[in-house]
Design goal:
Blueprint (H helix, E strand, L loop, with lengths): L7 H5 L11 E7 L2 H10 L7 E7 L16 E8 L8 H18 L4 E3 L3 E4 L2 E13 L2 E12 L17 H5 L5 H20 L5 H6 L7 E6 L2 E10 L5 E4 L5 E4 L3 E4 L2
Parallel strand pairs: 1-2
Antiparallel strand pairs: 2-3, 3-7, 4-5, 5-6, 6-7, 8-9, 8-12, 9-10, 10-11
The chain binds biotin (BTN).
Biotin binds next to α2, β3, β6 and β7.
Length: 259
């Protein structure tokens, strides 16, 4: 059993970043880190502020879904003040940071299911939620929320046991929360600075997608689409080829892999 003595000080200690995680707000238990991060952002929190919870009682996912965050999971939100141009890249950035951290700390390969689920062997290990407040062409704030199933048995949670996995389930042993969190924060800063320096993360994100080339169903709002996921655009949209040859560009949706 890996000890989980998390605190704001332990996370910030020896953290090799310049601004991401240099201010950490830690709660052993919280409804949702997104709500606290939003409040902090509205009060002018410094860029890179991290809100993290030992467990969440009201974790939120995309499309108003609940997100299960028991003890043993990682639940954190990061406050950023990006230029509006970088907003579509934040999901890509967060997915890549999660994949890199899982590989570095746990030695496990993971992939992205468009737009922002991270899967290991087809099962969801992490979910990402990006929320922002934009006025005109100015971003007041953006919040990246990341949940990772680290050290708990998904078989103890019937709601997710058939679709999810955790790092400890995959490895048969626990993983250090602190190592995953610190690696994640370092990776997020590195990729964010890459973007700001004019570098691209789109190609690596596209190549990490398990979705491309697959037959999929996509639910977008009330509409259900079917086709082959052909590619993704640089703004993160999915390009879906239908059997009649037509192409649909889907900005947001939920994908089911059919083959
Ligand atoms: C999804 O897969 O639908 C996204 C899940 C995002 C969960 C994270 S956990 C930290 C942050 N706080 C929340 O309430 N949600 C995000």
């Amino acid at each position: 059993m890996v000890e989980n003595n998390l605190s704001a000080a332990s996370i910030a200690n020896n953290l090799e970043t310049h601004f991401i995680g240099q201010r950490v707000i830690y709660y052993p238990e919280l409804t949702s880190t997104m709500d606290v991060a939003k409040r902090e952002a509205q009060q002018g929190a410094v860029e890179g502020t991290v809100v993290i919870a030992g467990e969440q009682t009201g974790g939120r996912g995309r499309i108003k879904r609940a997100w299960l965050s028991p003890k043993g999971s990682i639940s954190l939100s990061i406050i950023l003040h990006p230029a509006v141009l970088y907003l579509p890249s934040l999901i890509m950035l967060a997915s890549l940071a999660v994949i890199h951290s899982i590989e570095k700390v746990a030695g496990l390969k993971s992939q992205v299911k468009w737009p922002n689920d991270v899967l290991i062997n087809g099962r969801k290990v992490s979910g990402i939620l990006v929320e922002s407040e934009v006025r005109g062409d100015k971003v007041d704030y953006a919040i990246i929320g990341i949940g990772i199933n680290v050290n708990f048995r998904v078989s103890d949670f019937p709601d997710i046991s058939s679709t999810a996995t955790s790092l400890s389930d995959e490895l048969g042993r626990d993983v250090s929360h602190l190592d995953v969190i610190q690696c994640l924060l370092v990776e997020i800063e590195r990729l964010y600075l890459t973007l700001q320096a004019g570098g691209s993360i789109y190609e690596e994100w596209r190549d990490s997608l398990v979705t491309l080339g697959r037959r999929v169903h996509v639910k977008s709002g009330e509409t259900m689409y079917e086709g082959v996921a052909e590619s993704v655009a640089m703004d993160g949209s999915l390009l879906l080829r239908h059997s009649d040859g037509n192409l649909t560009k889907i900005v947001a949706g939920d994908v089911t892999l059919r083959d």
